[in-house]
Amino acid sequence: MPLFDRASIRLQPYFGYRSETRLTIAARALRAGTPRGDVFAPRGRLQAMRTMLAQFASREVPGLAVRLELKRPDGATIEREGVTDQEGYVRFDVPLDPAWPLARDPAWEVVCFHWLTAAGPQCAEGFVLAPGSTTQLAVISDIDDTIVETGITGGPRAMLRNWRRVLAELPDERIAVPSADVFFGALGGGAVLAKPEVVGARYAATHRPFFYVSSSPWNLFSYLVAFQQSRNLPLGPLLLRDWGLNRATLGSESHGAHKRAALDALLGFYPHMRFALIGDDTQGDLPAYADTVLGHPGRIAAVFIRTGAGPLSPQEIAGRSTIEAAGVPLWLGDDYATGDAFLRANGISTGGETAQIVHTIQDKGTAK
Questions:
Q1: Residue (of 240, 242, 236, 298) closest to 267 by Cα position
Q2: Is residue 330 within 8 Å of residue 338, measured between CB atoms?
């Protein structure tokens, strides 16, 4: 314990998001050594294990005062004060009054976190995704077994079976779901060209914003972002979980509950946008997405489910029936007609881009 006590306090910002009237972002205060360079750069198998173990070994810092600073384009500054909870998290949900207009295209915006340590004032940049004023459709995707086999959310036995993937493989060594980069990139509509006047911009937004919902722990935030970057996948806010070795976290029911709550939060945050949902058949995505379709009539443009785990369970069959009865296009891995209908019926794109996405689905045999 004294070893951790001597370590400096650092803040790990997570990706936030905003609308014209509201901004939300979170961070976590940890006692850990300051990262040097690219912590996930290839340095050998032993170093890979040390790097991954370090993601779980840091000690959270409760009761730390944190100040969030937002700078509006009109020059005004918004500041909010927060205090980290018992797990080291600090969350900001900031009403924007007057309204903060959105740019025409989606963009990543920069905010600043400030806190004090024995060494003096500290600050860290955070990044907030702002959809465009013309954005009508966004994408919410699962991560686990949809774009990468995480091996982290199947309970203790699954963790043991997948220990090598979790602890011994760096992001650029992980096996990505084939063609995930092509399909997600096409569905995202390509990157928005960065504007030179956007100071501090580090990430390129896609024309259709992406959000990711996963039952993986927040400890894997940096790891998952590094994986997405290494595979040229669209970046977006990650809605992960505080994770413990208990039934409440590891039970299969908890994955669906977390996913449904995250979906409800995003649809409530953006009441005027529709969403396409992408998932797989390993952790109850289909029933969770069916509940979302029922709870938010007219808001879901389509559902894509990557199949491969075997026959659908009774709950999944019921979920499929619910989605189809609601008239929402559903794709289950080899139903290219519904993939085509999804694009044509919901106006995801037109002309050559639509043809490109449909061609990708039919060529690769899956919307991965």
A1: 298
A2: yes
**pLDDT tens readout for residues 210-251:** 999 988 889 889 888 888 888 888 999 999 988 654 444 455
CA distance 6 to 211: 37
Q: Are 237 and 13 in contact (CB under 8 A)?
A: no
Residues 163-203: pLDDT tens digits?
Answer: 556 555 655 555 455 566 777 777 788 888 765 444 445 78
Residues 188 and 267 occupy one common structural domain:
yes
Q: Which residues contact 350 (CB under 8 A, 6 or more apart)?
A: none
pLDDT of residue 95: 96
Tokens describing residue 186: 């096409």
- Residue 11: count other Cβ atoms within 10 Å of its Cβ: 21
- State how many domains the chain has: 2
Query: What is the model's pLDDT at position 356?
Result: 45
How far apart are the C-alpha atoms of 69 and 364, rounded to whole Å? 45
d(CA 112, CA 319): 42
CATH code where residue 311 lies:
3.40.50.1000
Asked if residue 186 and residue 89 are part of one domain, the reply reads no
